[in-house]
Amino acid sequence: MGNSIIQDNKNNNSLIIGWKLQGRHILIIGNNHIAANRIEFVLDANPRKITLITPANKVSSDKIKKYITEQAVTHKNNEFNEKYLVEQTEEPVDLILTAVDDVKLSHEIASVARKLKIPINVAEIPQLCDFLFIPTYRDGPLQVAVSTNGTSSQISRKLRQHIIESLPKNVTSAINNVSLIKKQIGNNTILNKITNPLPLNELADLTNNDIERLVSECKNLEDEFDASSESSTTLGDSTQMLSIKSKIMDNDITLEPFTKGGIRFIDGKTAVSYVAYALSNTSFIYPTLRSHYVGEVVSQWSSQNAENVFGKVCNAIQMQTRSGASSAILGAASCMDSGEVISVFSSSSSIVPMISNLYNLSHENIPLVIHVSAYGFNDNFEKISNYHDAFSARDTGLGIINSYSTQEIHDIAIITHLISISTSSSYLHVFDGVKTAQESSKVNLLSYPEIHKISKEVIAEGYPSTTSNAVDIFEKISNKVGKILKNVYKAFEYIGSPTAETLLIVYGGETTVVKETVDRISQNGSKIGAIIVRVYRPWSEKHFLAALPKTTKRIAVLEQASSNIDGSYNLGSSLFNDVSISLYDGLTGSPPQLIDVKYSPSQKFNFRVVNSLIKQLEEGKSINFDENLPVDKNYPALTNVNQYVFWDTESRKTFYSSQHISQILAHNLKLNVSSLPTFDIYNNGGVVTTKLQLGSGIHDAESGVDFISINDASLTSKYNTLTYAKNGTIVLLNTNWTVDELETKLPNDFRYEAANRNIRLHIIDVDKIVNDLNLDVDVGTSVVLQAAFFKITSSEIKFHFNVSDTISSFYENGNEKEVGLLFGSIVQETEKAIVYVEIPPTWLILEKSDQILLPDIIDNSFCPNLDQQLTETPKLTAWRAAARNFLFKEAYKTNQIVRPDVSEKTYTVYVSENRRLTPESYDRYLFHIEFDTSGTDLKYDLGEALGVYGHNDTEEVNKFLEYYELNPNDVISIINKEGNKYESRTIFQVFSQVLDVFGRPPKRFYETLAQFALDEKEKNKLLFIAGKEGTEEFKNRVTETSTYADILFEFTSARPPVEDLVQMITPIKPRHYSIASAQSVHPNSVHLLIVTVEWNISSGKKRYGQCTRYLSGLKVGEGVTVSIKPSVMKLPPRDSQPIIMAGLGTGMAPFRAFIEERAYRKSQGKEVGPMILYFGSRNRSMEYLYGEELEAYHMEGLLTYLRLAFSRDQPHKVYIQHKMDEDSELIQKYLMQDEGWFYLCGPTWPVPDVKDAIVKSFMSTGELTAGEANDWVNKLKDMERYILEVY
């Protein structure tokens, strides 16, 4: 993909024979037609950016004006200045192309380029060129450049001529045939799979039918053929990407790697499961979610027969939360053998129905630990840390121990299990299920051998349990474990000033924020402190009072209440009562002021809330959580911490990139890394934010983050995505908008905030990179975003690892070398594609809208669209439901749109004429069809194509629906691409107008269909065809044009429900036909010239081209959905310029429009130039298309020369090139002297011979050699006066 270099070892010179323009920044200087041609040449190669430097008032090329208007180039409206190249540090120029008329300026530009070591090509001055173009055909075939490193132009000219003369004669035809196929299917490596085996001669001799067949194969096969066995797999081979899987996003977590201990990047629920599995014989799991619940991995490990520290497989039993829950635990406890341990995984809401049995369990004297993930949902279905329900077990007699970080969950789980084992008593281990359980961070795991060793030591020492000494035992075991883990935990942990006067006592979801806030405030001398309650039950007055500073004057006890807070004093058991009794019984003298601070489960805690709470306490105010007091200026900010926020939408699946980034940083940096995703599955199609932090401390996004990645630009209008941006924050926006388009497409509020906060904005088009490299969407998108992150933040994060190697290490496909090479290319292309955006000063004076955007998403799920909400699937209903929606449009927000599934603008036009042009007895069906465009705003230019959305054959559709037992009048509603609306059609409409049910299916259809096969033999056969072993049979089916319907008829036991089937069949693609009319002559109609496509397969069964069959059968008055596609076929800018047209068969279509347009302009009194038409077909009597019209134009003199080549009307074949040979002098005059234009439209096979005829005409005067004549043709191509539209 890079430059091809021939090295001269002796003289150390090199000859560059190929430049890669894709992904590069190209600078073009000039304003004439040569500069315009160079812009188009570069655009073909998909550059990262094209910058054009020229004063607007000097632009002489209409094409350049168009490129500037359409923003195809970044225009610098000034003369060239060396300063521009020197200052391009964010987006350095890779290549310079100049086309200026000033020779002195050309020398100056070349001098600057060489000084800065930027390769340059100077038009018309070869001695200044580092390389010379050899332009050939459009769409990139044979784009060759020859570098002579600034040496003699004679060498380069000889090389040019040698390359041209060395090419096989039929290479042009082969190139154009392959280009045609590629143009219709896009940049897809499957093209190589089909065309590579064909010899050059066969490629050159492809007929129209051959090309249509190959195009169909390419479109249907897509990425289904297996990757080549060669290690140098083409970058665009999507089968290669499909085989690559993430090592970290798989839901199946294997235990064995963890058992060795050490630093691991895991979340809290995995950490507690690791410990519980190690020390349990039986685990009861009470899930209240469909996935991502605490204890989920325990079931996986048990099914994998993983052994715990006792060398046994823990028996995992999944239970249901209901009234009387935990009876199974009682039953298991009654028949336990000595030494056996039970663990339970539960949410806080599951504790409530267990209460009655927990009283009994507390008297059983069994080693039991219940790990409680404290979470729930409020009335708005938003996640909350539900400690109230968890602590409803405080009077059951079970011990309760809390942990407040991911590392603590691991450590406290070990300590709790060891206490339970050594004292044969039951404990609840409670932790925050919203944050701590879900947050991933670095956790120092004890290995299973270490856990086994310490458990044996604790059991050997023996700890007789009584309520009075339980807390002492906790601290003894904590000290023992702490020596290994370097973390020692106390029953009551004190944080803050040693002489604190104001004290907070906490033990719920607010704990981590309070701890961090108090620690930071007290550093400035504030007399504030906090006691963290770790061992809540049994309550130890002794240990509590020992932690209490003697200087304390006021104490606020924070405690979560039930959902209804009525302000009444709680006389039952509570943390406030425990503290109150301890102070009354244990202190002498006047006790501190005691304040009961109850808060709702929905109350959110952050630094500002806690700061406000402390100020209110210090000022003696009554507590008001809604009062937002300002934070002191000297309030210490987080230090040595980097914070990042990622915004993603579920539909784009970009969320996985942030998970990979977190893992990479955790594995490669010594700093602590923590990552916390939040999910909103109900709004805006599903939105995910991920907060990533490097350094110690809890997430404090409100203090300002260093980097924001907005991976879906639509979110900028739905949320205040810059809420957490500080001055100078780096922002990456994934969008296909250009820099100039940001002015109109970014919301005013976003642009204002970007300017106000001096953000450093970068944009990247991830989809373009993925499509250009033909990557699997999910894997490719994730890798590109990872590469972009590391590129942009490389100056902020001091990492010392190779980005592509590190990213690829987290993926697997069995070939590390292959993955490494591929990812290296992706990273390289990504780094080139990042565009830095200079924020215009005008953004700062924008008026902000009155719209109030949410600063963050509503956190209502634990994973993307899985826990509470199923993915929207198609819905099958009776027609009455659709009728109701249609009749009551406003109530049901129903819109009537012709083709809502199509992104292009479409029009409904009506057939006004459908006329066969060939005799009934003739074996080829060519027809002329006209559509009435009245009442539409359809506009088309000369040479453009009409896209037709064809329908399947009605008889075949009805036959299929009858076989599939579907009611054609039933209505099926399918969710749209944005995921926010349903598109409803009848079953008949879907199978007739939308689904390509009579097209060829890709391999994946066979694989998916196998899942529905009830017959084992049919299932195996389908899987065989879909696998590597069935490649040959699959190819045969492609050759035989086996359709979706054929497969469903064949495998009768595979009958997917229609709701699934409509998602398995690809949609019908539009077919494009050159327009055969000029709108100036036919203002309210559009005409097409079409030949039907049909062929027989080996069985003798006839197959038809779907769209030509549809069009040929249309009756006058029937409606058709169409769109417009641009084309390169345009008339010359001056009416007086000659035009030479060569059309074969239906290739006559655009030339009919050209002739009509010239006739119209002549009728308006304009002088029009001469026209030659070379028309070729088989027989004059059968295929003289529009013959009467052409003869009339010729007799009138408008069509100056009419040259007809009917190949089969005489013994020897006569083609258009033979007629052109007869007009050599005329062609030479029109093209070389009179600035005429040449056009060829039709099949590809005559292209080489037609070019040879033109070359001969240029040599006819005797003044040009063959090489010079070829150069002239190439020059015509550069000037767009030699235009091919072949198929």
TrEMBL record:
One of its GO terms (biological process) is siroheme biosynthetic process. Pathway: Sulfur metabolism; hydrogen sulfide biosynthesis; hydrogen sulfide from sulfite (NADPH route): step 1/1; Porphyrin-containing compound metabolism; siroheme biosynthesis; sirohydrochlorin from precorrin-2: step 1/1. GO terms for molecular function: 4 iron, 4 sulfur cluster binding; flavin adenine dinucleotide binding; FMN binding; metal ion binding; oxidoreductase activity, acting on the aldehyde or oxo group of donors; precorrin-2 dehydrogenase activity; sulfite reductase (NADPH) activity. It catalyses: precorrin-2 + NAD(+) = sirohydrochlorin + NADH + 2 H(+); hydrogen sulfide + 3 NADP(+) + 3 H2O = sulfite + 3 NADPH + 4 H(+). PROSITE patterns: FAD_FR. Residues 904-1133 form the FAD-binding FR-type domain. Gene3D superfamilies: 3.40.50.920, 3.40.50.970, NAD(P)-binding Rossmann-like Domain, NADPH-cytochrome p450 Reductase, Chain A, domain 3, Nucleotide-binding domain of ferredoxin-NADP reductase (FNR) module, Pyruvate-ferredoxin oxidoreductase, PFOR, domain III, Siroheme synthase, domain 2, Translation factors. One of its GO terms (cellular component) is cytosol. Its cofactor is FAD; FMN. This is FAD-binding FR-type domain-containing protein.
